[in-house]
Design goal:
56% helix, 5-stranded antiparallel sheet, single chain, 219 residues
C-alpha cells in the first residue's frame, strides 16, 4: 500500500501544482479586470449597473480582456508615437511624491528582467556558498555599479542565489568574477535543477552522458 500511495503522489503532485499555478495566474488576471469593472460600475449610472455586473461575472472575459489590453499596449509601446507616450507617462509618474520613489525602481527591474537585450538571468553560474568548500547554482544579473567596483578594487559580478525548492526567494550577492564558474546549462535547465533539489539533471548533460555510455570503447 505504501508503494502504491507514493506512486499515486508522484502522479498527482505535478498535476496539482501545475493546476494551482495556472489557476493562480488566471485568478490574478481576472482580479485586475474585476477591480477595474468595480470602479466603472461605481461611476456609471445605476441603470447600467445590472448589465455591467453580468458582463463582469462572465467566466473567462476578464482574463481575455486583460491579455488583449496587454498585447495592444505592447504593440502601441513599440511604435514611434507609443514610445513618446511612454516617455511622457514616465515623466509624469516621477513627479508624484510617493510614486516617484517606487515606480522608477520597479520599471528598471522589470525592464532588466524581461527585456531580451538585458543581461539578467542570461547565465547560470556556480558560486561558493555558504562556505569556500561548497558550491551553489546561481544566476548572473549584471555588474555592480561603478562606485562598488571602485571601492572593491576588482572585477565583480552581481548574482542571484535562489532558494530550493522555491526559487522566487533568494539572496542578492556581489562576488568576484574569478570565483564563479559559468555553466553550459541554460537558465531553464538550471531552474529545474534547483527546484528539483538536484534530482533532475540538465537535458544537455543527460544526453551527453547517455551518448558517452552508448559509445563503444576504443579497446
Amino acid at each position: 500500500m505504501k508503494k502504491y500511495f507514493i506512486a499515486g503522489i508522484l502522479v498527482w503532485v505535478p498535476i496539482a501544482v501545475t493546476v494551482w499555478v495556472i489557476t493562480w495566474g488566471l485568478g490574478l488576471l481576472d482580479g485586475v479586470f474585476g477591480s477595474v469593472m468595480h470602479v466603472i460600475i461605481a461611476v456609471f449610472p445605476r441603470q447600467f449597473t445590472a448589465d455591467l455586473e453580468y458582463f463582469r461575472a462572465l467566466p473567462g472575459v476578464g482574463v481575455a480582456i486583460v491579455v488583449l489590453v496587454i498585447i495592444i499596449t505592447g504593440f502601441m509601446a513599440i511604435s514611434f508615437a507609443g514610445q513618446w507616450w511612454v516617455r511622457f507617462w514616465d515623466k509624469q509618474m516621477t513627479r508624484i511624491p510617493i510614486v516617484r520613489s517606487i515606480y522608477p525602481s520597479v520599471k528598471q527591474v522589470s525592464s532588466t528582467l524581461f527585456s531580451g537585450s538585458g543581461q539578467a538571468f542570461r547565465k547560470a553560474l556556480l558560486i561558493h556558498y555558504p562556505h569556500a568548500n561548497s558550491w551553489a547554482v546561481a544566476f548572473q544579473i549584471g555588474s555592480p555599479t561603478e562606485e562598488i567596483q571602485n571601492k572593491l578594487g576588482g572585477d565583480y559580478v552581481n548574482v542571484f542565489l535562489p532558494t530550493t525548492p522555491n526559487p522566487t526567494s533568494g539572496f542578492f550577492m556581489i562576488v568576484p568574477r574569478s570565483e564563479v564558474i559559468e555553466l553550459d546549462m541554460n537558465v531553464e535547465e538550471a531552474l529545474k535543477y534547483i527546484v528539483s533539489m538536484g534530482t533532475v539533471p540538465p537535458i544537455a548533460a543527460s544526453a551527453l552522458s547517455t551518448t558517452q555510455l552508448s559509445k563503444p570503447s576504443a579497446s
